[in-house]
Specification:
Blueprint: H1 2-24, E1 31-37, H2 42-47, H3 49-57, E2 59-61, H4 72-80, H5 99-105, E3 110-114, E4 126-127, E5 130-131, H6 141-144, H7 147-150, E6 153-154, H8 159-165, E7 171-175, H9 187-202, E8 211-217, E9 231-234, E10 242-244, H10 250-261, H11 269-272
Parallel strand pairs: 1-7, 1-8, 2-10, 3-6, 3-7
Antiparallel strand pairs: 2-9, 4-5, 8-9
Length: about 280
């Protein structure tokens, strides 16, 4: 009788542990990389050949709406679950929490690879083709005013070596410069840059490994009242050629990441956003 009781309680404990583990990590990916482009209407991005080609290998989001015009608030929402009242592109030093805080608390790592970033915790508005407003973690005081955490922001030079060697952190953002993101050059330029720079990875599922890539835009063109944007997810566990028509915004992508890593939430739109469905194998 005693052995049966012990066995019963052990089974309950194991069941609880497995249930908690299942809620913590669904196994869709182990690392995530956001690549963010600029100011393009959904239909225009989808018509560009390089962006169009990605939809054959990944999941296209057909009803994802950005938060605001102009850019900065959208980038903030990607990492904070809300634009936090940021409605312009002025330099801000937000004393608020972000996904980097959640990741670090869980013992996970994060990084931003920003093209042409000058380094040394540069907090200026711009430098050449680098623009701070497109690097959201730099808008948080607990990063920009902390020399150790600033090391999580670097230029692009190590990204591909880190990817190939498996050294990417759990959460990464790759921020193209003001030309490569299409801001100053247009979507055709941006698409060709993406194809030339990332095509060998994104168009070959075998090269993705355990990394999920999010290819998205900050906002639509300024004359588009709907603010609908192109977004594609690519990964080994993403159904190729699938579509998701759920109405959502950037914080839903953040929620997906928080749920996958089991790191909790920031209590903003990431908490209330829909769970993304229908795209996983």
């Amino acid at each position: 009788m005693k052995l049966k009781c012990i066995s019963f309680f052990i089974s309950i404990i194991l069941s609880s542990a497995l249930h908690a583990q299942a809620n913590t990590n669904s196994g869709h990916f182990k690392k995530v990389v956001w690549i963010v482009f600029e100011n393009t209407n959904y239909s225009k991005a989808l018509a560009q050949p390089d962006f169009k080609k990605l939809t054959q290998n990944g999941a296209l989001f057909t009803n994802l709406i950005a938060e605001v015009h102009p850019s900065q608030g959208n980038y903030i929402a990607m990492v904070a679950g809300s634009k936090l009242g940021v409605n312009n592109d002025n330099v801000v030093d937000l004393k608020e929490s972000h996904v980097g805080d959640l990741l670090e608390k869980a013992g996970l790592k994060w990084k931003t690879y920003a093209e042409n970033y000058p380094g040394n915790c540069f907090t200026g508005k711009s430098s050449g083709d680098y623009y701070r407003k497109h690097v959201p973690f730099m808008s948080f005081a607990n990063v920009s005013q902390n020399s150790a955490r600033c090391l999580n922001i670097e230029d692009e030079t190590k990204f591909f070596d880190d990817f190939k060697s498996g050294a990417l952190p759990e959460f990464s953002m790759y921020i193209p410069n003001i030309k490569n993101d299409g801001h100053d050059t247009g979507v055709d330029y941006a698409g060709k840059w993406l194809g030339n720079t990332f095509g060998s990875i994104l168009l070959n599922p075998a090269n993705l490994g355990d990394v999920l890539f999010i290819i998205t835009f900050d906002e639509s063109g300024l004359l588009s009242p709907k603010n609908q944007i192109y977004t594609v997810l690519l990964g080994a566990n993403v159904k190729a050629g699938s579509e998701n028509a759920q109405l959502m915004s950037h914080p839903a992508l953040l929620k997906m990441i928080e749920d996958e890593f089991g790191i909790g939430d920031l209590g903003r739109e990431d908490l209330t956003a829909q769970v993304i469905t229908g795209i996983w194998k």
